[in-house]
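When time allows, look over one protein, given below as sequence and tokens. The question is which stretches look regular and which look disordered:
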Amino acid sequence: MQLGSILAYKFPQFGGIDGAWQVRDDSNGTGPYIAFWDAKTIGRGMPTDEELTAWAQEYEAAYPAAVLNEARAAGLARFDAAMAAIDAELIRSTTDIVAAMLTPATPAADDDAVSALSADDLEQSKAVFTKLRTIQAQNRALREQVRTAQTLEGVQAIEPVTADGVAL
């Protein structure tokens, strides 16, 4: 639910940064919430969940293109975040591979020095790198589907592939 858009639809004269209501999202997974509601100025108490749900349906019916664009933007943001996390893991596995290629194969004479990666570690890093590249390719294709989806349901049905199943 695009809470800010719904409230702007129902109470256009009262919104904005210095308005009689404000919506915030702390990005803690619980979604946006009404952070400030000036009941006196608006002339009514804070809306209930049932009212918000009904207003969301009104908003979706009145502005289907806006709802679709908001869903696309949220979907693309999910893909961007997932792909950034995978990029960080790609950098890590690439660093392991480069370090293994540049580090001499003989163990260091000093016990405190870092020795070369084992052949097994190198192969695992290569396998992780390959898997992550495959996941990124899938996400690029899925992200494009989100960008071009023509329905709200189409956008909501597409989720990014994550690196959760990859042994890092």
Remarks:
- The longest helix spans residues 64-102.
- The CA atoms of residues 146 and 157 lie 9 Å apart.
